[in-house]
Amino acid sequence: MRTPVTAMVITRVNAEGNATADDILVTEEPLEIRLGHGPLDDRQEFRMSVTMRTPGHDTELALGFLYTEGIIEACDQVLRVAHCQQVKPEEYGNVVRAELHPDIPVDPARWQRHFYTTSSCGVCGKSSLEAVEVRCPGPIKPWGRIDTALSIQLPERMRAAQTVFAHTGGIHAAALFDRKGSLVLLREDVGRHNAVDKVIGAAIGMSLDPTEHQLLVSGRAGFELVQKCVVAGIPLMAAVGAPSSIAVDLARRTGLTLIGFLRGDRFNIYAPADKS
Known about the structure:
The chain has helices at residues 58-68, 108-111, 129-132, 148-151, 154-160, 163-168, 192-205, 223-232, 245-254, and strands at residues 5-14, 17-26, 29-37, 44-53, 78-83, 95-100, 115-117, 172-178, 183-189, 213-217, 236-239, 257-263, 266-271. The protein has 276 residues and is α/β, with parallel strands linked by helices. It has 2 domains: 29-132, Ubiquitin-like (UB roll); 148-271, 3-Layer(aba) Sandwich (Cytidine Deaminase, domain 2), CATH 3.40.140.10. The longest helix has 14 residues, at 192-205.
């Protein structure tokens, strides 16, 4: 079983000298996502993507990825997602296969974008901007009035639930809260985009109503994260860090409420542009 943390012996250095010490690092390993598709008596396999991720909640990551990339539109279009058993020893635990419903068409030429996502940039490897903005319906249902007192409490609630971060200090988080600020789902990953896919995958698996929830991410609000939030139909996204210009453009175009620099007792509202 792959684990989200890895123990290592390191050298600590300070003004008094050097000393060996035990440390715990966040695990980063590749996950290959494969698709099984076609008639049940003549299944075909398509190798969809490789992403560098932190092991754990791999099936949710695959499900969320397929959903936010527009390959599926509902959870019931996937028969099952499971780790592949017939793989090389070094691949064991790092390959999952999603079995699509036989009625779901798959065009390998369309999806042959050689997805390779790194922990620092979820867009790397995509052949064009048209391939990046996969499926952003809009406008989404407006969130409505922002509760300032509630919003500024969410980062601390998320941090308190980050078990891997508490041990390593080197991992991103995505958290789904309801309108009352109760934590519904939290996932951690070395890749911020993977953390969001894990949350979305879990949410659609639980049949949660996305319009009644808000998403908080521990880092910045890049384009791909905003895109995933919009595709999932989540009406409010908040980030501890800064948004990018193209992320704000997408939020304003689709009706997403986008908050950035949610720290301490303050934050900025970037979309909708006329809200305060």
